[in-house]
Amino acid sequence: MRNTQLRTKVGAELQAAASVDTAVIEALPEESREQARATLAKIREKQQATRNDEPPPTIFAAASLADPLLLSELVRHFDPRLADSDGWTPLMAAARATLLAREDAPAEASPSVQCLKILLPLSDPMAESSSGRTALMFAGSAHAANLLLPVSDPKARDERRRTALMHAVLDNRPAVAAALLAVSNVDAESDEGATALDYALGFGHRRAGVKLAELLAPLATSGIDQSLELAVAATTSKAAEDAAARNSWRPVVDELASRASAGAAKAALAKFRALDFPKTSSVLAKRSNN
């Protein structure tokens, strides 16, 4: 269904929401009703603050708030396939909300993952937002990625030809990237000519960027010289006194240098030495002597 039709349905849903609220709350266990009233009040307040001709659907806001008990009631009243003005579906909102889920905790312990489980069988996981992103591209945790993968195409591209793996990198989500590695094309390029590794090296947060690059570097088979150049740039961007931050990139540089051209390896070594690193990379030193 096209977004214009969906927005019409969303508007009708919001008009009916006030009368539905009471029925939804009364259907809940007595001990949960007060919390549900507070949650719905938050939803209403948010909708009123941002109200325009294309307000977000109630179920979308509920998915974002990660309240599985309330959401399980709302799906009985509202169509979970509705999208907002940007083409976002409740499933996308739930997938994004899992970024608050602890990766080291069981999926069952996360309210946001529970919301995703509620919505998944009722939704189209391959629905696209206005920018071409699917729910998998919004996954905020490995739990979400593992739930969505069986019914999603990990190699799908958005309007900028970015894959789910690239979005995991740009969102600084190493656990999500790890869940996607086996089913993704690591060498795929966006419309900017950048791979997931290039994004990790060029835009990654310091700690997450290093972890992501360490995951991706051994699997990259093309554009190694370019990636090595980016890795050295990430290293030399650190303050001179921050040796630990600089040295954290050494394994990535070593891995890429071992497969880069001799010229690229020598150039990288020259920049490393210019920073007076405590220990010259053994791989780079070996390459420079060839």
UniProtKB/TrEMBL annotation:
InterPro entries: Ankyrin_rpt, Ankyrin_rpt-contain_sf. It comes from Paraburkholderia dioscoreae. This is Ankyrin repeat protein. Pfam families: Ank_2. PANTHER family: GH07239P. Gene3D superfamilies: Ankyrin repeat-containing domain.
